[in-house]
Amino acid sequence: MSDTATVYNFSAGPAMLPQAVMRQAQKEFCNWHDTGLSVLDFSHRGADFTAIAEQAEKDLRDLLAIPEDYSVLFCPGGASLQFSAIAMNFLRGKALYLNSGVWGDKATQEAKNFGDVIAFDLLSKQDGKTAIRSQQDWPDCSDDYDYIHFTPNETIGGVEFADLPKAGQGRWIADMSSCILSQPINVKDYALIYAGAQKNIGPAGLTIVIVRNDWLQREPVAPVPSLLSYAVMAQNQSMYNTPPTYAWYLAGLVFQWIKAEGGVAQMARRAEQRSQALYQFIDNNDFYRNPIAKKNRSRMNIPFILKDESLNSLFLQQAEAAGLRYLKGHRSVGGMRASLYNAMPMQGVEALIDFMSAFAAQNR
Amino acid sequence: MSDTATVYNFSAGPAMLPQAVMRQAQKEFCNWHDTGLSVLDFSHRGADFTAIAEQAEKDLRDLLAIPEDYSVLFCPGGASLQFSAIAMNFLRGKALYLNSGVWGDKATQEAKNFGDVIAFDLLSKQDGKTAIRSQQDWPDCSDDYDYIHFTPNETIGGVEFADLPKAGQGRWIADMSSCILSQPINVKDYALIYAGAQKNIGPAGLTIVIVRNDWLQREPVAPVPSLLSYAVMAQNQSMYNTPPTYAWYLAGLVFQWIKAEGGVAQMARRAEQRSQALYQFIDNNDFYRNPIAKKNRSRMNIPFILKDESLNSLFLQQAEAAGLRYLKGHRSVGGMRASLYNAMPMQGVEALIDFMSAFAAQNR
């Protein structure tokens, strides 16, 4: 985002924030609402910050229709810290991890330090494309797992799926880091939802946790660091110690922006529009290729591979020069990746498509 | 800090940042160094952020003369998360906690979840004032403790001390949250130093850890969450996952500001000047009282009690109206507290003294 040239940031995260949010935050950076103080300066226990914090929670509850019997926590750090917290709080017998990529695998590895984990790879190849296996091939979700963890959108692989077996309902734990607030969800299906802020919420260093209150009563099998205890965090309204106040404030501005723009239903329409435009272009141009089966393509993270991979550096160099930033794919996948989160305007996607079209024409 | 009226923030943390840092951060908020992107948008693995991150570490190393065989980590969350991390990483047999207030007690409580802790209360009453006990009354620091933890400056009580027994050298672990960068230190005395950012470093949500590398080889007795493992954090240059990038950047700006102002020796002179002015005023005015023995008075956090405590609300109300913010003392101590961190200009202290003087004259 820029005041001068138009630059679009396709980073998988930290990602761009909405331009309107950035302008407001810049304007009130040194003097919030004529207090003469910056939000950065506010005591987290003072009236000014308390109002900001409560409004942010209220707006998030509105946006996702979070029921009363769920707590909303603003936790320090990223989602990876929650990988440990989830297992330390809730893993007593065994847990099922349904994995569809790198982040599910990482969550599994972390959980294995703290108990018995059954990991199942949801990915298969269908007609040369990566796809989520049919549910009849999944493990039986009615088994007595403490919880069932999955990653509805895999940021690195660009794999997304939504359908879940009835059997696990109420025991799902979902890492929604890269898809939260991009569509309506039914919170009641989940025991816990978590999401690192740096994609659709705000700056890095904050993770939102939505947890059903009855789960806060579960006794962990071993001591849990207070800051990783959901019970402690909930009892203290996420202020057991000083929370990441500025990140919390920016998240609140983003929630207000989403509400003003029309809510998560509107975010879903835009995500559909952005991603379909790019997938359609890729599918109709044999210079590029997306490796994911259509039904499981991510609306947020779109990996694509150049037919001639020796052109990768040239592509990236010219894209950067054209103001299309951070398109390099993750090292584990290669190629390119365009992340199209809520803050990405349609013009950014159009600029990318124009560039890709011209690059293909020039380098065939 | 304000563009318009002069407001001084005496909060114990989050605290005010230097005005020059705030102005620079505001100016480049949406467009850092003509990149067309905000630092908030930067991928933590991109060249722009890597340069920011490395410079911040280099500047901190310069400021505190951190030897080569120590790692500098930029950890998510606050110091309370390190209370757990320290015990989980290093507590195998027993550890000694030398406590001088609320934060040392909290560190002790957290550590007790993970192993054997000997806690010793350093505080005593001397002539009606709170003081640190003479070292001859301390436990023998040459005992085979895994480490010896202490809090050189207690933010809530306003107690500070610096002298340590030779016997514990190299095994000290210090929570320097509220005094780091306020004076030169000899890093070699310590196995680990940690400090939450929101006082002398930057915004809440970041904690600096300085740890001697040989301690990274110590095998924990039980699994440690990856984000709390100093070995994992060091191996990954604090980027095992997405770090709190914006907080890291602001910390870097503060480090540059301290260097430009003359380094930690200059910060120490200013801290002395600020705190001596306020203590002198308090000692010479029987309307106010500081409960700490002179030798252990904090240069950073100055609690003071009104002779007539029924005037507390009036004092706070008039102080706020005069732009002197967040002077209310911690609930466990009562009265008032003025926190005078590095970013507090001498004019702020003078304004406070003028106000206190007038208030005393009017309310005798």
TrEMBL record, chains A, B:
Cofactors demanded by this protein: pyridoxal 5'-phosphate
Keyword Amino-acid biosynthesis found: yes
Family in the record: Belongs to the class-V pyridoxal-phosphate-dependent aminotransferase family. SerC subfamily.
GO molecular function, a single term: O-phospho-L-serine:2-oxoglutarate aminotransferase activity
Chief localization: cytoplasm
Subunit structure: Homodimer.
Task performed by this protein: Catalyzes the reversible conversion of 3-phosphohydroxypyruvate to phosphoserine and of 3-hydroxy-2-oxo-4-phosphonooxybutanoate to phosphohydroxythreonine.
Binding site for pyridoxal 5'-phosphate: 79-80, 103, 155, 175, 198, 241-242
Gene3D superfamilies hit by this protein: Aspartate Aminotransferase, domain 1, Type I PLP-dependent aspartate aminotransferase-like (Major domain)
Location relative to the cell: Cytoplasm
GO biological process assignments: L-serine biosynthetic process; pyridoxine biosynthetic process
Residues that hold L-glutamate according to the record: 45
Chain ranges of the Aminotransferase class V domain: 7-352
Protein name: Phosphoserine aminotransferase
Pathway annotation from the record: Cofactor biosynthesis; pyridoxine 5'-phosphate biosynthesis; pyridoxine 5'-phosphate from D-erythrose 4-phosphate: step 3/5; Amino-acid biosynthesis; L-serine biosynthesis; L-serine from 3-phospho-D-glycerate: step 2/3
Protein source organism: Pleionea litopenaei
Cofactor note: Binds 1 pyridoxal phosphate per subunit.
Cellular component, GO annotation: cytoplasm
Reactions catalysed according to its record: 4-(phosphooxy)-L-threonine + 2-oxoglutarate = (R)-3-hydroxy-2-oxo-4-phosphooxybutanoate + L-glutamate; O-phospho-L-serine + 2-oxoglutarate = 3-phosphooxypyruvate + L-glutamate
This protein's UniProt keywords: Amino-acid biosynthesis, Aminotransferase, Cytoplasm, Pyridoxal phosphate, Pyridoxine biosynthesis, Serine biosynthesis, Transferase
Enzyme class: transferase
Lineage: superkingdom: Bacteria
One Pfam family linked to the record: Aminotran_5
EC number from the UniProt entry: 2.6.1.52
Modified residue annotations for N6-(pyridoxal phosphate)lysine: 199
